[in-house]
Amino acid sequence: QSCSIQAKPESTLSFFFLGGLNGLAPVEVYTEVMLRIAAHGFIITGVDPDLPLLKTPTHRYLRQSVREPDAVEKKLEKIMGTFDWLKENLNNVLAEVAHEKDSIIADWSLTGGMCHSAGAQTILEMAFNYTAQVNFSAIAWLEPFSLDIPQLPSP
């Protein structure tokens, strides 16, 4: 398929999206949601931190990720590596796709975190524990879920 990008040569907010099951659900499941957000002029990048699962059967992967004491830290390191790569390279990739230098500029000082379901835990970990690298201006949760986030008190 061919891709056509038409945008003003100005910086725009970028969303960093993590799917449900704490990133195990592939971002392709969320294509319609991400396209609708992008239609408003935002840049949205979906991340699949645990894919491909071809080397490890899913049931074994899920058991390992629950039992490994440092599984969360390993996943966060992988996700942060992807986030850092995007910050360094996304504008160049966008310019190549648009065949025009500086046609679309991701402003990383205006980054939004977005997630579905159990991706909420990882987005919060990024926001609170990686403040030197991540500066989320906004976080959008789609049906947030976590076993680790305490319930907020009712007003």
Question: Secondary structure elements and their pairing?
Answer:
Elements: E1 11-18, H1 31-38, E2 43-47, H2 58-67, H3 71-98, E3 105-116, H4 119-129, E4 136-142
Parallel strand pairs: 1-2, 1-3, 3-4
Major β-sheet strand ordering: 2-1-3-4
Query: Which consecutive residue ranges, at least 5 long each, have pLDDT under 50?
Result: 1-7
Outline the biggest β-sheet: 4 strands, parallel
List the total number of helices.
Answer: 4
**Radius of gyration using CA atoms only:** 16 Å
Helix coverage percent:
25-40%
Number of strands: 4
The coarse silhouette is: globular
Distance between the termini: 50 Å
Oligomer: single chain
Proportion in β-strands: 15-25%
Provide mean pLDDT, rounded. 76
Task: Explain what the structure shows.
With 155 residues, the protein is an alpha/beta fold. It has four helices and four strands. The radius of gyration is 16 Å and the shape is globular. Mean pLDDT is 76; it is low at 1-7.
Brief write-up:
37% of the residues lie in helices and 21% in strands. It starts with 10 loop residues before the first strand and ends in a 13-residue tail after the last strand. The protein has a four-stranded parallel sheet, with helices on both faces.
